[in-house]
Design goal:
Layout lengths: L7 E3 L3 E3 L4 H7 L7 E5 L5 E5 L8 E5 L5 H13 L4 E5 L3 H14 L3 E6 L3 E6 L8 H17 L4 H25 L3 H7 L3 H24 L5 H18 L7 H14 L5 H19 L2 H4 L2
Parallel strand pairs: 5-6
Antiparallel strand pairs: 1-2, 3-4, 6-8, 7-8
């Protein structure tokens, strides 16, 4: 939703704008309440409601009512949308064990706090305000690099991809919560456009992990050496490394594509997708093109 507001004047110097009625109703803002105005790193002024912070939200799921293959999608929705508790009902212990295995493999910080024969309660136990968002982005990059180093070992690559998935969901949760929680927004200090850019970059890194898993055991490190260099360079540029120039990205891209000539046809398409995603990450870099 986009709201257009006219800047008005009080007295000789004070300027003000009104808050949209629908927005105030959505977040329960009333006369006398405080809102928080945050200035992003690129100059946008972000108005945040303060009355949503710390609220507990419980998501209910009945495992009998949804197909097993949809359970992950449903829990993913609850997780990335900031629910603090997950209450699940079931008819068998096997359903509970499957749920616990799914949560352990995908959703960091969500722990089982109680269970009965018919119901289990999971709670998000991490303090999201203590998480170093940008360090985790760098960790996701490092893990995908380790995946390339170990590309001949399929099981090892799959295990690392699971870690990338967990970090991905955690950071998407943090980004989405940052849109309504002023403490998280203050920590991230991102403009609305930057929220979108980071969302895309996280998706690209997570998908690179998936592509690497698809070719694990089929490819050799030499097939991906130049791709690794391009990926790492692109992410450093996106995170603000001013030493990297557009010509560096272009040169690394050409090297990566040139190396495809000697790659087996059945994995060349996967590698070309990784190259394109690495280039897309670089294209989102403000530092790279606005130096």
């Amino acid at each position: 939703m986009t709201y257009l507001r006219k800047v008005l004047k009080i007295g000789n110097s004070s300027l003000f704008i009104t808050l949209p009625k629908l927005w105030c109703e959505k977040f329960g803002i009333r006369e006398g309440d405080f809102v928080e105005a945050l200035e992003s790193s690129t100059g946008e002024l972000i108005i945040m409601p303060r009355n949503n912070e710390g609220a507990e939200r419980t998501f209910f799921i009945n495992l009998e009512e949804i197909q097993k293959e949809y359970a992950e999608k449903v829990i993913s929705y609850a997780y990335i949308n900031g629910y603090t508790k997950l209450r699940a009902t079931y008819k068998s212990k096997k359903e509970l064990e499957d749920l616990k295995n799914l949560i352990e493999s995908k959703f960091m910080g969500l722990i089982l706090v109680s269970e009965t024969d018919e119901e289990a309660l999971f709670s998000f136990a991490l303090d999201i305000n203590q998480i170093d968002f940008y360090e985790i982005v760098r960790r996701m990059d490092r893990i995908t690099s380790f995946m390339i180093d170990s590309i001949a070992n399929r099981e090892k690559v799959k295990a690392m991809d699971s870690e990338v998935d967990k970090l991905y969901f955690l950071l998407i949760r943090m980004l989405r919560m940052g849109l309504t929680d002023s403490m998280i927004a203050r920590k991230l200090m991102l403009s609305p456009v930057q929220f979108l850019d980071y969302r895309l970059v996280l998706h690209f890194i997570e998908t690179i992990g998936d592509e690497l898993t698809s070719i694990a055991g089929k490819a050799d490190f030499k097939d991906l050496k130049t791709v690794k260099e391009l990926k790492e360079m692109s992410i450093r540029a996106f995170l603000g490394d001013k030493k990297i120039k557009p010509s560096d990205i272009e040169g690394a891209s050409k090297e990566a594509y040139s190396a495809l000539v000697s790659v087996k046809p059945d994995i060349a398409l996967n590698i070309s997708r990784i190259i394109e995603m690495a280039k897309d990450i670089a294209d989102l870099s403000e530092t790279l093109y606005l130096q």
